[in-house]
Amino acid sequence: MQAKNHTENLGKENRSEHSLAARLRDLSKDYVLSGETVHALRGVSFDVPQGDFISIMGPSGSGKSTLLNLLGCLDRPTSGTFLLGGDDVAHMNDDRLSETRASRIGFVFQSYNLLPALSVVENIEVPLYYSGQLNAAARNRCVELAEMVGLGSRLDHRPSELSGGQQQRVAIARSLVNDPRFILADEPTGNLDSATTEEILALLAQLNDEGRTIIIVTHEPDVAQQTRRTIVLLDGQILSDERLKPWEAGSAQLS
Amino acid sequence: MGSWFRTIKLSIKSLLLHPMRSALTVLGIFIGVASVIWLLAMGEGIGRAAQEQIASLGARNVIVRTIKPSSDDVQDGGYGLTRNDYVRLLATVPTIDKAIPIRIVSQEFRYKTRNFEGRLVGSTPDYPLVTNLVQDQGRFLTDSDLERERNYCVLAAESAERLFPSGNALGKEIMVDDTFYKVVGVMQPRAPSAGIGGSLAAEDFSSDVYVPITTLWRRIGDMIVITKPGQFQRDLVEVSQITIQVDRRERVLQTADIVRETIALDHTLEDFGVTVPLELLQQAETTRLMFILFLGMIATISLVVGGIGIMNIMLATVTERTHEIGIRRALGAKRQDITRQFLVESTVLSLAGGLLGVLGGLFCRPLSVAARSLLEHWFPQQMETLPDLIRTVEPQLVSWSIPLAFAISLVVGILFGVYPALRAAQLDPIEALRHE
Predict the structure, then answer these.
(1) Could you list the residue range(s) of the whole structural domain that residue B414 is in?
(2) Which parts of chain B register pLDDT below 50?
(3) ipTM score here?
């Protein structure tokens, strides 16, 4: 019941014209490694407007992974604020972080990360299970999502029976199932050949056109080129934040 | 509710991914749970056997028996209970409901060409009442038979069978010690009684012939002379046994003490013993306790070992599935969701063991019969020394042992599953995701 209200509130926010999917202000993250403090992120600030398609780039050690973990609510910042809706992720406890991951973020991983024992539909259902919204209507939506990513004929297949591109499509369908504030994709095409990479990027672009907010973390400039905006990190700070394609508030309407 | 069902389904699915491993893990719990059911069944069987034997000996009875003292103390061959003891008991112990004197002498019984060695039992009309003996044909001895010292006799079922295999013993005259006795009744068969520690040895009633005790005293007398090669023995005994029925069950033990003291007043020799069938209960209780201790130890050990097995497997599973845990955490699983998933898995394992254990428990009776016959074949001497209660015990399944078995396996599954489950839940999602 609570979870349902929660989703309805999110829906209202989406309808306001200048709503943000997320806002990062002066975000920093320190790690203590064998007695030495490592400053992985040193004051990162940017906004993620609804409907944007952002790529985050940077060499290894630039703080890319740390930012990804923070954006994915897998970790809390050492200081600064990360607003997701009206809530500051920095002040959430472990359970709230889990709830947030379950209902507001859609993960797409480089290695797909499907559960091998589950079928296509069951894999898509997993986030619903943890956000407590698993019902008959939600199940139907899982099938619709599978059909949308072109796997309508393979609903009962196991991940091991699918190609890499197909598995990544399942993962994308799974990331959409809870109607998240944004999709967070970590090198989504890193394990795919160039043809399949194009397919997956086309699918993500299509989702973005439909109003989905997408953040891709990647090291491939070709991939970044296809997004609307590229943020480059270096030594834990933003080196550049460049808009590649126009983003109109009008396209931010979720269907 | 639905999510629990889903979790259970999921855990069965992942356990079946390693069927051999899961089956071996279940084994320890199986043995433990089966032992619990067996232990209760054995205890129940012993309890029931004791109850039956007490019923056959008479729960309200106190048995006083003549015991032969060491031969140096005996003067003129005279010892044991006397007619005077019997009279005095009746007169002085108020809680006695009935008391019967019994004199037992070994004799040879003849009818025409048939004969056999058996026990000539002299007693009173109350004998069947006090010893739970049931009339089959004719009648038992009466007061007038005793008064007139009649040569009447009543046959035990097996005695009648031996002398009159074609039946119809009533009215026939059998010969005992050169005297003819007319058969007036035949009794129903009765099971031999088990021995109780102390003075009451196991007793076989199958070759008995009952006559009025007055007739026995008159015809046979008190003096029994036994001549064997190289041995001459005279026994002078008036009464072999006095069986007393106490008016109320609660007073049995107390009455036994009074009876012992009353008789001891008149006896300088240790030539009698007092036994109470009710004491069988205490003996059964000891035996039952022994079984419960023994099997309880096996059950505890195998449940602990089984539990450790579950813990071991679950820890391996957690390590093996770290990546899966990472994925689930990233997709929104809370720590408690992960805890629950692994706890359900260990509990399913343990409950499977419990279920099999219950099945194993159901085969308790045939298996114990098989085990006993094997033991009797391999170790006959050792088996001889065991108390009858253990040698003949028939396990009786106790209905509440089945829910108990399930409760135990549930507790073991949770107890030994908690640590691996908590460890799984404490994994850092980022680390877990990176783990391959």
Answers:
(1) 2-54+282-434
(2) 197-199
(3) 0.89
